[in-house]
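#help-structures

NK: newbie question. if I give both the sequence and a SMILES, will the prediction place the ligand too? trying with manganese (II) ion
OV: yes, paste both and it writes out the complex. here, I ran yours:
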Amino acid sequence: MGVTLERDIRERFRRSGYTLTSQRKAVLEALGESRGHPSAEDVYLLVKKKNPRVALGTVYQALSVLEEIGVIGAKHWSESPTRYDLNVEPHLDIRCLGCGAVSEIPGVGLGDLEDRLRAATPYEVTHAAVVVEGLCPACRAAG
Amino acid sequence: MGVTLERDIRERFRRSGYTLTSQRKAVLEALGESRGHPSAEDVYLLVKKKNPRVALGTVYQALSVLEEIGVIGAKHWSESPTRYDLNVEPHLDIRCLGCGAVSEIPGVGLGDLEDRLRAATPYEVTHAAVVVEGLCPACRAAG
DNA sequence: CTCGCGAATAGGAACGATTACTGATCACCG
DNA sequence: CGGTGATCAGTAATCGTTCCTATTCGCGAG
Ligand SMILES: [Mn+2]
Ligand SMILES: [Mn+2]
Ligand SMILES: [Zn+2]
Ligand SMILES: [Zn+2]
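OV: that's the protein plus ligand as structure tokens.
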């Protein structure tokens, strides 16, 4: 089972001072299982399959901790709860306005965008995200 | 007063079939007055100064219509209500994690990002937004 | 100028996502 | 084994936003 938990993740927990609890491991596992970009509720339902006693609030807290220590990412669209992602590299995620599915746009990075923005603003930039909206092929066909 | 309402905006209303009501004009005005990227609540408070009878729901409905016809834009961050913007060109907005202020990063466009993403996905792309988080100089100094 | 009608509004209730609270449990240290 | 602080389950509360309904508005037909 959870023997294979990346060294890097354990290290991040250790350094942050947070405990690597079974619930937090379960949330990570759920994010791995679900191919897409699940919401907190999605993660909650997955985690509950193996441990029916987990509380939704615990999932929110776990997601928050995991994001804080840089193990997962979160993005925000209109008309959708927050979506979470194991991919913490800068990348593009697109949400279908028809069916609501969120998926990744592979092969397209931010390029030099982050460098350019850091050079152009006096802010200390901590995070940059690109969110895209559109219609997936299926929904486009459906009309 | 509202004599100077861009031809383009009137035209968009006409084509969409929506009515250009006094409340919708007031919401546009409020967005013009407020330099930054106000929330619906911010807009509501501004509009109420001139017409205390407006309802918050009306402001939400107006913002929704204005976004739909392409006159304003909206972006979503964590820990903040939706922020609205008269700038509908693709551009970068940054939110300070300290004080919550949202401002624009001038001089940095998306470059060829939109072209590349359209080429790389089978989706029909309708909208792409970049949201950035960081610390403004004041908050960085404060600590 | 009235009347009629659909669109828009004010006001307030309802909703969904997220957070806050609280007593019980857990992980870890000595 | 106890003690101690972090975490958790369960639930209440909050917040942004949407929904609902009676009333008003804008406007064209007569
Ligand atoms: Mn992703
Ligand atoms: Mn902007
Ligand atoms: Zn779809
Ligand atoms: Zn600041």
